[in-house]
Inverse folding.
């Protein structure tokens, strides 16, 4: 066969979403790749300029359908900094609770998709099954399984329902031994190592050059985790380790994600214990009325005063399950943000595709892209 | 044993039909009840019974796989159509039957349509060769094993033809992989069979089964069994060797462009080949329809006991294939070929050597002796 270009996508089982990987093949060998994104562009940044600060949170859920909470958190931090609002501590803990459960759910989703990519059928169902438990938890306190709209600028929408923490502990107890089970199914298999070792290697300096973050950079041995390096929310108070691997290949990313899930369970146990013993308000008291404060005095700060609300800009960086997400919110005074800009980690991760794909075989594309964990919603926004 | 065979049953049916017809139409009576006419119709009836049995078994096999896979994956599998989803596959089949056959614009019509048809026809042909019990066979075929394997190895040609003619890069790559893989695994498969043939002293499947009356061949020929099963997995294109239709990178591999009934042809033929593969394992290594002597005679002497036990063994063997499918990842093409040429062929040569040794020493503890020492 002569060299040929094939389009893997926009509809292709490898893509997990709506994007296109153009591949130049010589027989089975990959000569060149060219990722093409933009099929899922919904103009979220532009729409945000036309929405109230709290309404943007609805859009954040649509940014990444497997990690909605991470994006809600990212935006709320930036918006709060722009609006000079401080959320109460209990709200911060609730956010971390949501975030870390989301990290596990997202990684379980990744696990399910990734094992499917290397041809393992059963663990796919196991990953989805266990992710469902977390979605059930979400449903119990946000009412939704995917698009939560739970965070608010200045706090969260509501407190936990009674008995939630016990339920959460049960889920954590169920999950803990599951991770070893997953490891047995993957790492215990010779074929898995044959397929994944030394595959899709992206060394630490290449990661830095291309702005690759998240599990990919940690699998290359670089200890970079915003929860430690640039602690936001209440991560400073929580005790956890940064998952690391040094092989920089697909197996390394697998190990990092597995360890991250274990660390998330560790964080969640602390958070759940804290929530049990520290009741309190979950949304800031001094919100302007147009942010939907439940007890805001109507006469003091109403619609008339909105133009005089202090201006400001807010920047936030959050360790999303896929990598480092960043947000920039400009507040020119008013109900709507003047400009919102996001940085998606996955965009950088798949932009570097040429670095970690050329030279491997066509059968390696699904495991490599699977190990990158692509979520197209946040790439295109 | 009784002398009722599949052929005698079909002959009786054909004769009955023709005699009734002759009674209804008296002038044609003499012509219809002619011996040659009856024989001709008997062969037809024979074929219809085989076709129906193989079709039914194939569909049941798909159900068995779906249920077993479902249980392994912590779910239930098909549940809604029929009792425990038994009729689900019929529903799926009718759905595929109703669908329009779409032919890609640039596809080569001859290859596109004849490929799946030939694939299915040759797969059905296989079922006619294999003896299922002492009565259920197509007569004495001295080289039936060789014939079965020869027909089995037609498949890459038809797959490649249909892949190439559907004018799709994924199909083409799937077809290439299929051809490379099947040729690589044909050799160890045949060598493993040679080991059995050396011990049994015959290419006739019926004889091979009767040679296993003292002990089944899976014990002394364990290496050959392993090679044969692995080769069969590759021939059947099941995980971990399902590279030609690796859905992660090649969409559906060589049948990407096929939909509707043509896809159903491929699907049916695939499972038919899986069935034939399991049947061959049972025939060559697990004693066919015979049971060991310690099994109480009540369990082996009821009517159709041979077919019953044969089917039980076949479904258990296929269950093992399903288990493998549920728990292993897919290997890569180059790894598959390397394993095929570097590991399987030496192993199969070893199994041939062991078989020769077995024939020489005749008796092996704890299995016993070869009955007729390879006459």
């Amino acid at each position: 066969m002569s060299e040929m270009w094939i389009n893997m996508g926009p509809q292709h089982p490898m893509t997990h979403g709506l994007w296109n990987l153009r591949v130049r093949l010589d027989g089975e060998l990959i000569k060149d790749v060219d990722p093409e994104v933009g099929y899922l562009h919904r103009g979220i940044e532009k729409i945000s300029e036309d929405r109230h600060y709290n309404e943007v949170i609805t859009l954040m859920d649509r940014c990444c359908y497997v990690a909605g909470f991470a994006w809600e958190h990212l935006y709320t931090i930036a918006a709060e900094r722009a609006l000079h609002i401080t959320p109460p501590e209990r709200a911060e803990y609730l956010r971390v609770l949501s975030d870390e459960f989301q990290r596990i759910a997202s990684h379980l989703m990744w696990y399910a998709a990734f094992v499917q990519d290397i041809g393992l059928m059963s663990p796919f169902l196991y990953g989805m099954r266990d992710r469902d438990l977390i979605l059930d938890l979400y449903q119990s306190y946000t009412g939704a399984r995917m698009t939560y709209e739970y965070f608010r600028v200045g706090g969260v929408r509501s407190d936990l329902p009674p008995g939630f923490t016990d339920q959460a502990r049960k889920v954590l107890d169920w999950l803990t031994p599951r991770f070893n089970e997953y490891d047995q199914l993957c790492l215990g298999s010779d074929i898995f190592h044959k397929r994944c070792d030394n595959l899709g290697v992206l060394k630490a300096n290449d990661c830095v050059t291309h702005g690759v973050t998240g599990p990919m950079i940690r699998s290359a041995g670089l200890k970079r985790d915003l929860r430690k390096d640039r602690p936001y929310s209440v991560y400073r108070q929580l005790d956890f380790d940064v998952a690391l691997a040094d092989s920089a290949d697909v197996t390394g990313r697998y190990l990092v994600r597995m360890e991250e899930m274990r660390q998330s369970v560790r964080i969640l146990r602390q958070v759940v214990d804290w929530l049990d013993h520290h009741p309190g308000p979950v949304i800031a008291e001094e919100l302007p009325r147009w942010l939907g404060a439940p007890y805001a005095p109507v006469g003091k700060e109403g619609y008339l005063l909105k133009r005089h609300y202090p201006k400001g800009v807010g920047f936030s960086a959050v360790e999303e399950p896929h990598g480092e997400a960043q947000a920039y919110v400009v507040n020119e005074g008013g109900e709507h943000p003047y400009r919102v800009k996001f940085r998606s980690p996955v965009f950088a991760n798949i932009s570097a595709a040429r670095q970690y794909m050329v030279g491997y075989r066509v059968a390696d594309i699904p495991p490599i892209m699977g190990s990158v964990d692509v979520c197209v919603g946040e790439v295109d926004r | 044993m009784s002398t009722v065979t599949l052929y005698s049953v079909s002959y009786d049916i054909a004769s009955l039909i023709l005699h009734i017809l002759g009674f209804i139409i008296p002038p044609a009576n003499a012509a219809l009840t002619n011996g040659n006419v009856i024989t001709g119709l008997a062969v037809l009836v024979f074929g219809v019974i085989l076709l129906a049995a193989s079709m039914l078994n194939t569909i049941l096999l798909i159900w068995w796989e779906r249920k077993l896979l479902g249980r392994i994956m912590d779910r239930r599998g098909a549940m809604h159509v029929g009792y425990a989803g038994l009729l689900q596959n019929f529903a799926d089949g009718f759905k595929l039957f109703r669908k329009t056959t779409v032919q890609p614009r640039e596809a080569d019509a001859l290859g596109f349509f004849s490929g799946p048809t030939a694939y299915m026809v040759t797969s059905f042909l296989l079922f006619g060769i294999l003896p299922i019990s002492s009565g259920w066979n197509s007569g004495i075929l001295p080289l039936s094993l060789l014939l079965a394997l020869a027909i089995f190895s037609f498949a890459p040609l038809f797959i490649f033809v249909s892949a190439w003619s559907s004018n799709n890069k994924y199909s083409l790559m799937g077809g290439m992989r299929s051809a490379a893989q099947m040729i690589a695994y044909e050799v160890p498969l045949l060598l493993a069979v040679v080991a059995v043939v050396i011990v049994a002293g015959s290419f006739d499947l019926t004889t091979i089964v009767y040679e296993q009356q003292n002990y089944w061949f899976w014990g002394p020929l364990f290496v050959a069994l392993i090679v044969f099963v692995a080769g069969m997995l590759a021939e059947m294109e099941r995980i971990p060797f399902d590279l030609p239709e690796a859905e992660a990178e090649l969409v559906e591999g060589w049948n990407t462009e096929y939909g509707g009934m043509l896809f159903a042809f491929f699907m049916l033929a695939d499972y038919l080949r899986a069935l034939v593969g399991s049947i061959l394992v049972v025939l060559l290594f697990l004693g066919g329809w015979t049971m060991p002597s310690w099994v109480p005679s009540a369990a082996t002497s009821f009517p159709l006991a041979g077919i019953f036990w044969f089917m039980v063994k076949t479904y258990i063997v296929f269950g093992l294939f399903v288990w493998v499918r549920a728990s292993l990842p897919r290997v890569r093409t180059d790894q598959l070929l390397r394993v095929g040429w570097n590991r399987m062929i030496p192993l199969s040569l070893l199994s041939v050597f062991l078989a020769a040794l077995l024939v020489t020493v005749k008796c092996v503890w704890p299995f016993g002796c070869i009955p007729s020492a390879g006459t």
Observations:
- Chain B has one domain: 99-369.
- The beta strands of chain B are 363-364, 368-369.
- The CA atoms of residues 335 and 341 of chain B lie 10 Å apart.
- Residues 99-369 of chain B form one domain.
